[in-house]
Amino acid sequence: MATIESIQKAYIDFVLTEGHQPKSVYVFAKHNNMAEEEFYRYFGSFDAIEQSVWTDLANKTILEIRMQEVWEQYSAREKALSFFYSFFELLKGSRSFAVYSIKSQPRGLSTPRVLDGLKNAFENFAQEVLNEGIESAELTDRRFFSKRYKDALWIQFSFVLNFWINDNSAGFEQTDEAIEKGVNVTFDLFQRSPIDNLFEYGKFLAKNGGMKEKMGF
Description:
By secondary structure, this protein is mainly α. Helix content is about 70%, strand content about 0%. It has 2 domains: about 1-45; about 55-200, Tetracycline Repressor, domain 2, CATH 1.10.357. It has helices spanning about 5-20, 25-30, 35-40, 45-65, 75-90, 95-105, 115-135, 150-165, 175-190, 195-205, 210-215. The longest helix is centred in the N-terminal third of the chain and has 21 residues, at about 45-65.
């Protein structure tokens, strides 16, 4: 009897061998000695299989890093870095599929549909980490902008994923460097800066606009 895992495995084997999706669910099911309805019990399309593979990678990464003994002692920045490093380390075992999946998607500014589930898992994780960072005052709670922090992290993740797809360095060392520099720069932007101090000073002056008169100027 087919399972989610067996269908995923059979699909990945097919696309990596043939270089394209099966012509139909019927052909795929027959090739793998399963009834067509068994396929539809778990998936509505071939794209849904790819989406599930990406989502499973994200969920497995999150589960593994949360089990680390030092997890609770990590800062928000360290938790984000842990996800990035762990995800791409795990992705190495599925590199051929990842390259096929990403390169077969239509080019555009929007997130490829096969990454929708991964994006949702990533953003839920990121929002939790960012909330912890704001509560601990590691990160600055900026009106209107704080809710966009997770979007900035997703953009960073998307950049690193595309960088990794095209990375030919030994051991993907350049990707590790891209993660370190990219995530750190992004978190630097989330922290308090001189611009925040200037903004706060501006609010103070606006709130105390009558001070000039009080001082006789």
